[in-house]
Amino acid sequence: MSIETASARAVMRRFWKTAGGFWQGATAWALLALLVIGVVLQVFVQYRLNYWNRDFFNALEAREGGQIWHLAQVVFTGHSPDDSRCARREARAQCRSHGELIGMDTS
Are 68 and 60 in contact (CB under 8 A)? Predict the structure, then answer.
């Protein structure tokens, strides 16, 4: 074993002896989990923005004004305007079918 390897091991041993007390508490592990969750969330957001950016610039290149406006609404509101309309339509259909099940007039 070379002197450099022995020195590196001694440094690592000293580091873990010093830092070992920190990693014995539950707070440290909770902070580590929070850090990992934050990193994964950041990667997910960047991934979604990359796809949005691709679609936005494809719409610009094709000069599709409606699609550009739609994508701008998606990024500034966090959801598609079509999503809320679909949700309302599905809710009405579910209410209608529930009313028919219990014998109510649904017209």
Answer: yes
- Residues 43, 49, 54, 57: what is their CA dihedral angle, to the nearest 10 degrees? -150
Strand, helix or coil at 86?
Answer: helix
Residue-range domain boundaries for the chain: 26-101
Cα–Cα dist 34/9, whole Å: 30
Mean pLDDT of 56-79: 82
DSSP state of 21: T
What is the pTM (predicted TM-score) of this model?
A: 0.51
Host H or E run for residue 39:
helix 26-62
- Angstrom distance (rounded) from CA 96 to CA 100: 6
Model confidence band, residue 76 (pLDDT cutoffs 50, 70, 90): confident
